[in-house]
Structures are given as C-alpha cells and as structure tokens.
Amino acid sequence: MPQIRLECSREMADALDTASLFASLHTLVIEKANATLAACKSRVAVIDRVYVADGAADRDMAHLDIGLLTGRTPEVLTAVGSEALALLRQHVAPVAEAKGLRVETSVRLVDMPPALYFK
C-alpha cells in the first residue's frame, strides 16, 4: 500500500516520464494519505489497443488506479484523487501537445480492506 497503476497506450508509455510521475504520486500519498515511501509500489500497464470516444487516431487515454488501505476520510480521498488527476494531467500534457493527441485522463481510488491485502 499504496498500489499505483498507470494504464495507458504504448505511444503514451513510450513518451511519458513515468519515473517523474510516480515520484510525484509517491510524494502525494505520503503527504496526504499518511503512506510511507517504502510501501509505495507503482507500475505501468500498457494497453496495445485504445479506442476513445469516436476512435479517432488522435484520441488517447491515461488512467490511474490508486489502491489505499481502508480507513482514510472522505476529505483525504478527495484530496488524493483530485491532486493525482492534476499531476497526471501535468505530466501527460507535454506528450499530448508534442504528438497532437487529445488525451482523456482519469483516476480511480481503490479501497483495499486490510483483511484482503497480503504482503
């Protein structure tokens, strides 16, 4: 905990500075959700085929799932979700602009009950 997974197209994954994005996200969950750096785990799941909206060639997507152990207040979850979305957009924007892409960004917080998370 936290478990952070970025899902994006291969084109996005190849151009995105994921190390910088993940470092920013780790800082966020440490500061806002009381996580420890040693507990942060992040990965990229590359999607080979992406179909967004009308399927136009200039459409792309980047989605974050952030798994946190149960127990955070709604205010903490809102802060983590909204700030994670802002970070994702900040990191995706230069790639989108350079490649002429319209990128849909999203974040989903995943509640992880401690009884169901094993390490």
Q: What's the mean pLDDT score?
A: 95
Kindly state the percentage of residues in helix: 40-55%
Structural class: alpha/beta
Rg, Cα atoms, Å: 15 Å
Taken in chain order, the helices and strands follow as EHHEEHE
Major sheet summary line = 4 strands, mixed
Low-confidence stretches: none
**What is the topology, as strand order, of the major beta sheet?**
2-1-3-4
What is the first-to-last residue Cα distance?
Answer: 9 Å
Molecular shape: elongated
Number of strands: 4
Task: Please state roughly what percent of the residues sit in beta strands, choosing from under 5%, 5-15%, 15-25%, 25-35%, 35-45% or over 45%.
Answer: 25-35%
The tally of helices reads 3
Overview of this protein structure:
The chain is α/β, with parallel strands linked by helices and 119 residues long. The chain contains 3 helices and 4 strands. It has a 4-stranded mixed beta sheet. The longest helix is centred in the last third of the chain and has 26 residues. The termini are close together. The relative contact order is 0.25.
